[in-house]
Design goal:
This protein has 387 residues and is an alpha/beta fold. 44% of the residues lie in helices and 21% in strands.
Length: 387
């Protein structure tokens, strides 16, 4: 029997300080002794074994991603032990050929840790810089500026070839020159992957409250839209492939793990609040860290073809064969889908070819609109059928 390839996501929900804009599940200033790290590791391994036995029986890993929170807050020893256990569980996986990523914050990195993460088996780092200017970091509630020289020196000496950075744009007091300076710094230092996220105000975050109380200014959606177009053109001129709405990469340095999500492929999620998807159901872990460690409780949710499938296909620029949709859609759904695709093509959001289509640059700017419109029309048709 052929094995099913799945990504593996591991949530490390701990931070020294929670950022003002962040709505991901994370815990600030948690006790992170070696004993606790081992306790959390034991819970993750137990979670993995149970999910593999019940929902991912014949699975081969295609990528591993340690996200957070701040994964770099954990000692390298944690990753040595965890990756050793993963290799023993997935004996059918060639770990020399898969992407193993870890998110990191610059203030929790040093030369020693970077070298040891590499020796543990991490082969891709994604560093959440967000901005190199103190005034913008203060607005975002980030801890501090970085020592750029030390960080780059440590990365280069560690022989990490594959590393990327996250930047945030569209802050109220930020102009194009500010954004360009950060991008130029990344280009000049041969950063392979750049994620640029427009600042959005998420509900129940500290930043939302500060804006409501008029302590901080609200970002402009109109300005964000303009910057997105300028950023895309600038990075493409500098040989970065715009392969996903917010992500740009040098050739062959696209993040395979994230593409796995957008391609509607299976993934295993470990850790408090993590989600899994085996192609049929979604598995949602408890968001209570104590309950997760004591006895992970999770719930099963039936996966919806709409909008789950469209979240991905309207975010990436790669070619989408029509045969893929014909296989997984009902006949009436596929006819509606084709009609809507033609409508999007008339607006220059989609480029139609003989056997499929791909999203245009204009389409990437309208990703959310296409997702909503496609999901709505198919949902309405389903309601008619069952009325």
């Amino acid at each position: 029997m052929n094995s099913q390839k799945s990504g593996l996501y591991v949530h490390i929900p701990f931070c020294e300080k929670k950022c003002n804009y962040c709505d991901f599940y994370s815990i600030e200033k948690y006790e992170l002794s070696k004993n606790f790290q081992q306790t959390y590791l034991n819970a993750l391994i137990q979670d993995l074994k149970e999910k593999k036995e019940k929902y991912f029986i014949n699975t081969e890993l295609s990528s591993i991603f340690f996200g957070g929170g701040t994964p770099s807050i954990f000692d390298p020893d944690f990753y040595f032990k965890f990756l050793y256990e993963i290799k023993n569980i997935f004996t059918n996986t060639n770990f020399n050929n898969i992407e193993i990523s870890m998110e990191a914050n610059p203030e929790s990195l040093c030369e020693r840790k970077i070298n040891e993460y590499k020796r543990a088996g991490i082969n891709r780092l994604n560093i959440g810089i967000q901005s190199r200017k103190k005034e913008f970091l203060n607005y975002l509630g980030r801890k501090s500026t970085i020592d750029e020289v030390d960080l780059l020196k440590a990365l280069h000496q560690s022989e990490f070839e594959n590393y990327g950075i996250d930047l945030i744009y569209s802050l109220p007091m930020q102009n194009w020159n500010d954004i360009k300076q950060d991008i130029d710094w990344a280009i000049d230092n041969n950063v392979k992957h750049i994620s640029l996220y427009s600042l959005t105000i998420e509900k129940k975050t500290k930043l939302e409250k500060e804006i409501f109380l008029k302590k901080k200014k609200k970002p402009s959606e109109k300005r964000s839209f303009i910057y997105q177009k300028i950023i895309t053109e600038y990075l493409k001129k500098n040989s970065y492939n715009h392969y996903e709405v917010s992500n740009f990469a040098k050739n062959k340095f696209e993040c395979e793990h994230n593409l796995n999500y957008w391609r509607y492929r299976p993934y295993i999620g470990l850790g408090a609040s993590a989600h899994s998807f085996n192609g049929k159901v979604r598995i949602i872990n408890t968001t209570n860290i104590k309950n997760y460690i004591k006895q992970n409780k999770y719930k099963l949710v039936s996966s919806q073809l709409n909008p789950d499938l469209f979240i991905g296909i309207f975010r990436i620029t790669e070619f989408q064969p029509l045969s893929k949709f014909k296989k997984i859609m009902k006949f009436h759904e596929f006819l509606l889908f084709q009609k809507k695709i033609i409508e999007f093509a008339n607006k220059n959001w989609i480029n139609i070819k003989k056997t499929g289509f791909n999203i245009t640059e204009n389409g990437l700017l309208q990703s959310d609109t296409m997702l909503i419109e496609m999901s709505n029309i198919l949902s309405r048709e389903d309601e008619k059928l069952f009325a």
